[in-house]
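Dear support,

We are seeing what looks like truncated structure output for some complexes. This example has two components. We would appreciate it if you could run it in full and send us the complete token output so we can diff it against ours.
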Amino acid sequence: MMDLSAFLDQIWIARLAILKGLGITISISALSIIVGSLLGVLVGLSLVYGNRALRFVVRVYTDFIRGTPVLVLVLASYYVLSTIGIDLGPFQAGVFALAVFCSSHVGEIVRGGLQAIPKGQTEAAKAIGLTFNQTFAYVLWPQALRQILPAWVNTAAEMVKASTLLSVIGVAELLLRTQEIISRNFMSLQFYFLAGFLYFVINYGIEQFGKYVERKTAVPS
Amino acid sequence: MSKVLLEIQGLRKQYGIVEVLKGVDCTMREGEVISIIGSSGSGKTTMLRCINMLEDFQGGHIRLEGEEIGYEHSGSSRRRKSEKEIARQRALTGMAFQQFNLFPHMTAAQNVMLGLVKVKKMSHDEARVLAEKWLDRVGLSARADTYPGQLSGGQQQRVAIARAIAMAPRLMLFDEVTSALDPELVGEVLQVIKALAADGMSMLLVTHEMRFAYEVSSRVIFMNQGVICEEGDPKEMFAKPRTERLAEFLKTSSFN
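Here is the complete output from our reference environment:
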């Protein structure tokens, strides 16, 4: 019982640090998911509709990024980019790395979603006289989005988890804040558990939101 | 005689080195219902798909009401028309597919309305009225707000036909529209096509339903190895085939 009240005491003392860390974690995740998804849609479109040269370049990009550990991307964008004159702070460098990572994954998901649509859909759209842009906007994209959603939610949750890697370059997100708190009060078990619980809550929220959207947009059959 | 609607001259099409169409010539008049028969690989579906440019072709001419389809010719050179122009020409013909190809994320009515609103630039309300009229014509007025996944194959195909017909095409193309259907659902779709024929719709049908071809067609075209092998009145053709190939084909097909 002593333990619990001591733990609650420590949480109260560290509340601002925890909240700040949580705030940073959420902003890192949200920014990298938004920027990464927008980029990822472009990547996916290039992979499906680009000409040979563009497809090749984008394919190399996604394969390279997907084959590299996220931690390496984070370290590289913080330490390597500055050597070529791009000086980013730890927060920007970290978000940049995560967004790039996210874009390669979303790109693949978008490509898969578009290519999974039967050819007959495009043909039927053409046959009633729709142009390519109209076909894409009204026939292909709405179907692809439904296909993409579950995998995209998964990627979003991955990004939240990957945001912890930014602690390595000194971004005071939730994990680094937690470590700082532990170094003061030595309650490692309790505070790591608390951090884990907070990550779980964020990801659980994302997942529930995804399921809600999936239900809302489901096509009756 | 009614005026010429479709003119195909020396149509040639190849995939790589395989020649699928080796010079097809065919003239179709307004109001005609022509069935194209032949064994698989004879090029009948490919020919149909060339007419609305779902397939590019390498030689020859297709003219719909005198308008050159798909390619610009100047002297001996030819150039594919712009995508926009081809989209406009495609709207002149309607097509129904073997696999229906309804848009699964739209209701039956929305499927019919899409082309009306986006291609014909009708208002939503006008399009809705027209969609309901055509869904009623194919016997599905009660299903206007149903999604394709909730319809039977036969119903889906009827919606697909309504979607094509609502665009008021000059010519309807049917590509083996009953081949993917359970036998007991074939009848309802053929019924719809028969009603369209009775209305005077010009139709070109690729079909394996010999009995149906016999009954509704004003003319039958028998294709074999990329050329038109024989054509004529269905009653004469089926009773007295002039070529060996057609006689053989009729023997192995379900018609007797």
